[in-house]
Design a protein that fits this description.
258 residues; alpha/beta; THUMP fold; 7-stranded mixed beta sheet; 4-stranded mixed beta sheet; elongated
Length: 258
């Protein structure tokens, strides 16, 4: 934080963790440290310019800055469902939110989903306060995404009917990419093998994603997305595997552009 800003400190504990620690006393102690080290800083508990938010677990405090807040009534429980554009291949809201977090967008960042489908990642990114941009090869999907974004009051930077392998972004860079390329019977790959779709996706993204920033995508475990990404010059950060059914385990993979 800069000099002369107002601030507040909030500490919450996870399910009764560290009961021996007084969270209010901890908030005051952290606040005193900030006051001693930041010239002109003032405490404002009602409308602070900066909020330091701590999560207290057993023997550990995770401290960071509050960057955004979901507005009341816009939680991960989506509704009214009758007004939303739905599709059987849509990513569940909670998993979409997790994937956005794994991509580590920052305040003011532009988040791209080049296979936007129903707009799950765009909705979550927008609710978290990030700018969003989406493409899909199917016009009805783009139109449906726009409906869902509008439902949550999110204005995208742009939406287009486009092939992700030929993203229409001349001279434009994005800060992170979160996506779920098509696979399975309920989606279309335009007759192209899923592995080749993902390989082409990495080639396209390498030209528009800023260096050092992240891609988070879901892909079938069977296509070995880690190897595809590394062959394309991306650094594999982590993978999380989610069993869906007998013939599908999702690899939620995170990469960094070198």
């Amino acid at each position: 934080m800069s000099d002369a800003e107002t601030f507040a400190v909030r500490v919450r504990r996870v399910r009764g963790s560290s009961p021996e620690i007084d969270s209010l006393a901890l908030e005051k102690e952290i606040g005193d440290i900030i006051l001693r080290n930041v010239s002109g800083a003032r405490v404002d508990l009602k409308a602070p310019q900066t909020t330091f938010f701590g999560i207290l677990t057993d023997g550990r405090l995770l401290l960071g800055l509050k960057m955004a807040q979901v507005k009341p009534g816009k939680s991960l429980e989506r509704g009214p469902r009758s007004k939303m554009f739905l599709h059987s291949a849509a990513m569940p809201a909670k998993l979409a939110r997790c994937m956005v977090n794994l991509a580590q967008p920052r305040t003011g960042d532009l988040v791209l989903d080049p296979f936007c489908g129903t707009g799950s990642f765009l909705v979550e990114s927008g609710l978290m306060g990030f700018r969003v941009l989406g493409f899909d090869v199917k016009r009805f999907m783009v139109e449906g995404s726009l409906r869902n974004l509008s439902l949550f009051g999110i204005e995208p930077e742009g939406m287009a009917v486009a092939d992700a392998r030929l993203a229409p972004l001349s001279g434009v860079s994005v800060d992170c990419v979160v996506t779920d390329p098509p696979y399975g019977t309920s989606t279309t790959t335009l007759g192209v093998d899923t592995g080749r779709v993902v390989e082409s996706f990495f080639a396209a993204v390498s030209g528009i994603l800023r260096k050092g920033r992240r891609v988070c995508l879901a892909a079938p475990e069977t296509i070995r997305v880690k190897e595809i990404g590394e062959r394309s010059g991306f650094k594999h950060i982590e993978s999380h595997f989610i069993y869906i059914h007998r013939s599908l385990t999702r690899d939620i993979a995170v990469f960094e552009r070198g």
